Amino acid sequence: MAQVQRMSRLMIKTLRDDPADAETASHKLLVRAGYVRRTSAGIWTWLPLGKKVLENVSRVVREEMDAIGAQEVLLPALLPKEPYETSERWEEYGDLLFRLKDRKGADYLLGPTHEEIFTLTVKDQCTSYKDLPVMLYQIQTKYRDEARPRSGVLRGREFQMKDSYSFDTTDEGLAQSYALHREAYQKIFARLGLDYRIVSAVSGAMGGSASEEFLAPAAAGEDTFVDCPQCDYAANTEAVTVKVEPSDAAGVGEIEELDTPDTPTIETLAEHLGVPASATLKNLLVKVDGEIVAVGVPGDREVDMGKLGEHLAPAVVELVTAEDFTGRDDLVRGYVGPQGLAGKAFRYIADPRVAPGTSWITGANKDGKHARNVVAGRDFEVDDYLDVVVVEPGDPCPKCGAGLVIDRAIEIGHIFQLGRKYADAFELDVLGQNGKPVRVTMGSYGIGVSRAVAALAEQTHDASGLCWPREVAPADVHVVAAGKAKQTELALEVGDKLGAAGLRVLVDDRAGVSPGVKFTDAELIGVPTIVVAGRRAAEGIVELKDRRTGEREEVTVEEAVARLSA
Q1: Cystine design at 533: which of 178, 235, 279, 491 (Cβ 3.0–4.6 Å)?
Q2: 3-class secondary-structure state, position 64
Q3: In whole angstroms, what separates CA 172 from the centre of its chain?
């Protein structure tokens, strides 16, 4: 028999007003409806109703992972420093890593992800090709020392995550494991009732090659992605690429030096010369692991520092400061140009729009001077072409050329083909069929379990409160006693009958609470079906209400039980 939970015995306190620090709908409603409470910045307590929803999400994830043959394990959250030093992520993670020492002075961390420990576990347990392939997963608390935790459980310092890892002896096997996870994720998010997009992504600190994100479109999302209205292309903005063919510079004259006093910015230069900003070449100076690097982009575009950082990871990328120009006579602040300097004074990176043969107005490396007819490939060389500009609405789709649309979303899942990065670091080999060692190849697959709860709240709420899909709701039916003794008696009877039929039931039998407050709480809590024992209780008539559509219907108790348990 399914559980019947009386609200008179449930630890719950609903709030009429939004928390003062809440900005997103999920933050406001999960607190107001009594699902979570803030313990400290970025750290949350899951209260009884919230824990039910969290466990329901975990159950769906677990069932679909089991269905593809993945095996569940549980690794420690408190981890030794040494494996993360071996992978170099002890330093790469920087301030995001929670670090601590034990009483003997040994270094530990609280796990943000577990590639290293899973790799060592498989190295210990699997010695032959016969032991592979294997897929392992866990649902566990993770930790990241976010500088500005916000948006409730969307961006916390402690969070629930499913991370899984595949281990294969061939690249073809990795591709199959990746495909299995991709299909499982589609089933998981469909069952959860999430609207989502699968987009191309970059791997970042995780490493590896192929990478895709599962994004839930929502105004509260911190990720931006592009969608093509004409084809199936979709990508995180950091993964968008552009294709530009070389230009013919045969008709472009020699470099012409221009007198451009007091024009250290693109805006002042364009105004002074009466040209569009797109005709100018912007050269942004950054430091990559302390070394000055120039990044060239068209003057009407901005450098996406996040995108640049992902391309150059694990190197640390930061903007230059005034002090960095000291002693560098070859770098004239506000008037830097790549001609004569690229490959000598600094490494020169350019966006693909700075294609060979394109002609630009750019700095002349002299104070108050710019140069016209500076041609890429003729007057300067590009060391590396990287897609580094901020994507704008209307940029051409890399697949079909149509104008892209930009939207915001919440990242709910990410899958990677890691390859042999961690296997190389830890020398993860198994004995092959020919008796020789074979280096294992890996995949890494994550789902934000607690984040999925917030994403569902963001996507499904309405003006009255939460509105959970049935698969994850804390109950199937919310029975409200809208009156005194007779109504409460009928509500409890209905609850018991529904419970006996296998449904999860929440019964509002609270004494001394007005019907208005009970109705408001039922809307706020968001169980899919509401049953009201009200004015016709003496006749054995109840009201059925669909929480999402608002449709109401009066039926007998027997009909209500039969219909809801069908």
Answers
A1: 491
A2: helix
A3: 27
